[in-house]
Design a protein that fits this description.
- By secondary structure, the chain is mainly β.
- The chain has one domain: Sandwich (Immunoglobulin-like), CATH 2.60.40.
- It is built from one helix and ten strands, in the order H-E-E-E-E-E-E-E-E-E-E.
- Strands 1, 2, 3, 4, 5, 6, 7, 8, 9 and 10 form a ten-stranded antiparallel β-sheet that branches.
- It is globular.
Length: 168
Amino acid sequence: MKRSLVLLGILPLLLAGCGSAGGDDKPLGSESFRYNIPSGAVQDLRFGKEQFFAYGAIVGTAATPANGLTKIHVFEKGVSLHTLQVNVALPKDGSFFEGWLVNPKTNERLSTGHLKSLFGDVRHNLDYQAERDLRAFTKVIITLEKDDGNPAPGTEVATGMLKELKRD
């Protein structure tokens, strides 16, 4: 008898957690994630002291849902590192995603290579290293490319802007 009363007491709580009775499929809202970004001077054993750091969100276009994070580090030994993590549906066979850095003042575009999905799912990443200062390249673009050897940028599917973070 006591067990039945306990179950009857818990049942309304379980049903309340199931959502509205109307069955509408409206989104629940948005999520935000906090990334641990070190403060203070950053020192890389290979490239020396970090001189510049910028990061930004990646968002998809209306036709291609996507989200992610992009970063650039510039080090005292003249090396820049660019990383990109993005969630986007796998491209169809014969296509791939390519990353680009853009200098908004000069419109110079720099291909950072093909995005890779290590697990064959929506998670894509890219690591790019340059022997030059990339701090002027504050726009990031991801394009969908046909595997046809054409080096020109394809259809833009996601974009982001890098914002400098001054470290203590």
